[in-house]
Design goal:
Helix content is 5%, strand content 45%. The protein is mainly beta. It starts with 11 loop residues before the first strand and ends with a helix.
Length: 141
């Protein structure tokens, strides 16, 4: 499945764990419902495969970064389950870490990608529920 090109109403379940604001990288487009990451500079970007990006959570709103880094902030949520598209998963992967393919998709193998979270329910070979712990939840433990 392709990266998001517009806001998506991502299905979620469970009580909301955390919501927080993160400054956005200049000119970066982040769509509501997409996985949000941050690079080594600490500014939010849409999560992508193979990049040096830490997953922060899921975008609660759509934002376009301003002319300079940090001019705009985005609200991110984490600490609950979200339904994501996947490439080719199986029931046997339950509990396994799902890695970022792009801001809209996860898989068990994705070259050098960060973990989006753990699979909590297998739906089909192309979708699953993922508990997105995010950066804030991980720090709270």
């Amino acid at each position: 499945m392709a990266s998001l090109a517009a806001a998506a109403n991502r299905r979620a379940r469970g009580e909301l764990g955390n919501r927080f604001k993160v400054p956005v990288k200049a000119t970066s487009q982040i769509w509501k419902g997409g996985l949000v990451g941050c690079g080594t500079d600490g500014f939010a970007v849409a999560a992508v495969s193979g990049a040096n990006v830490k997953v922060l959570g899921v975008a609660a709103e759509s934002k376009l970064g301003g002319a300079t880094d940090g001019l705009v902030s985005i609200e991110v949520e984490c600490g609950r389950e979200y339904l994501f598209a996947a490439s080719s998963i199986t029931q046997a992967m339950l509990g396994q870490s799902m890695l970022v393919v792009n801001d809209n998709e996860v898989d068990e193998t994705s070259a050098s990608s960060a973990s989006a979270g753990s699979m909590t329910e297998f739906v089909s070979t192309t979708s699953c529920w993922v508990f997105v712990r995010g950066l804030r939840s991980a720090q709270a433990l």
